């Protein structure tokens, strides 16, 4: 791989998103186009909860390794966005409002007893990746947020249009993400553009984003196989 200019690197990153982001996944299309039933939407929300709940832990592993107060302040904001600054606030609490609104028992959701094995393995792999890889790769893996505003807009409008069992209150998680995700991705993109200075570092950045896209894609593969094709593994949520 030859050395790319920052603009060329950004172009390659955006190309990865265009090809690999999970808005292209068949399960995603079914969810947004009203092709799922209530039980299948419940399964999606239940499994996605584990991803949401582990994001602050993922960010905390990176926060502990950041070398400057400036970087730590920036990354700490992400943890506060998800965990909140007091009980009942933050993205994880808002996701539980979604599972509540879909009729899932909160204790059951938080127990994680109904997770698909692939959900657990995929999310844990992402947390471990951020913990174990370089700071540059860990930050680059968050760049899926470059593409999330589009998927959020599609998700909210599509679900409100097609499902009478959801409301704007049920989907309240997504509204703050329309401003939080661009803010976070702007920072991460600027960091990557500045600090990926060798072909090896740029390759690491590109592969980190590919890995993160694969994590999100694999989670939807598992949901599609279990709850659309009907192959629910032992121990997983049964509607």
Automatic annotation (TrEMBL):
The record, for SUPFAM superfamilies, names: Heme oxygenase-like
Keyword Oxidoreductase tagged: yes
Which Gene3D superfamilies does the record associate with it? Heme oxygenase-like
Q: What Enzyme Commission number(s) apply to this enzyme? A: 1.3.3.11
Annotated Thiaminase-2/PQQC domain ranges read: 11-221
What is the top EC class of this enzyme, as a single word?
Answer: oxidoreductase
Q: What pathway does this protein act in?
A: Cofactor biosynthesis; pyrroloquinoline quinone biosynthesis
Q: What is this enzyme's catalytic activity, as reactions? A: 6-(2-amino-2-carboxyethyl)-7,8-dioxo-1,2,3,4,7,8-hexahydroquinoline-2,4-dicarboxylate + 3 O2 = pyrroloquinoline quinone + 2 H2O2 + 2 H2O + H(+)
UniProt KW keywords? Oxidoreductase, PQQ biosynthesis
Q: Which NCBIfam families match?
A: PQQ_syn_pqqC
**Function of the molecule:** Ring cyclization and eight-electron oxidation of 3a-(2-amino-2-carboxyethyl)-4,5-dioxo-4,5,6,7,8,9-hexahydroquinoline-7,9-dicarboxylic-acid to PQQ.
Q: Its family? A: Belongs to the PqqC family.
Q: Which PANTHER family match?
A: 4-AMINOBENZOATE SYNTHASE (PTHR40279:SF3), PQQC-LIKE PROTEIN (PTHR40279)
Q: What is the protein's name according to its record?
A: Pyrroloquinoline-quinone synthase
Q: Which organism is it from?
A: Gluconobacter kondonii
Name of encoding gene: pqqC
């Amino acid at each position: 791989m030859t050395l790319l200019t920052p603009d060329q690197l950004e172009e390659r990153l955006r190309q990865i998103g265009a090809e690999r982001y999970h808005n292209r996944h068949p399960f995603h299309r079914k969810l947004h186009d009203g092709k799922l039933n209530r039980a299948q939407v419940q399964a999606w929300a239940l499994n996605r909860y584990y991803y949401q709940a582990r994001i602050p832990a993922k960010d905390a592993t990176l926060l502990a390794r950041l070398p400057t107060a400036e970087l730590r302040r920036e990354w700490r904001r992400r943890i506060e966005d998800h965990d909140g600054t007091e009980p009942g606030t933050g993205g994880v609490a808002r996701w539980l409002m979604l599972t509540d609104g879909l009729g899932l028992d909160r204790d059951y959701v938080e127990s994680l007893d109904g997770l698909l094995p692939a959900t657990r393995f995929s999310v844990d792999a992402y947390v471990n990746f951020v913990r174990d890889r370089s700071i540059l790769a860990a930050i680059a893996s968050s760049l899926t947020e470059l593409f999330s505003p589009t998927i959020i807009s599609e998700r909210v409008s599509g679900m409100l249009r097609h499902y009478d069992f959801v409301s704007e209150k049920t989907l309240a998680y997504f509204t703050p993400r329309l401003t939080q995700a661009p803010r976070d991705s702007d920072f991460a993109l600027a960091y990557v553009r500045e600090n990926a200075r060798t072909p090896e570092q740029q390759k690491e950045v590109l592969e980190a984003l590919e890995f993160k896209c694969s994590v999100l894609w694999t989670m939807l593969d598992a949901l599609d196989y279990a709850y659309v094709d009907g192959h629910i593994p032992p121990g997983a949520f049964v509607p």
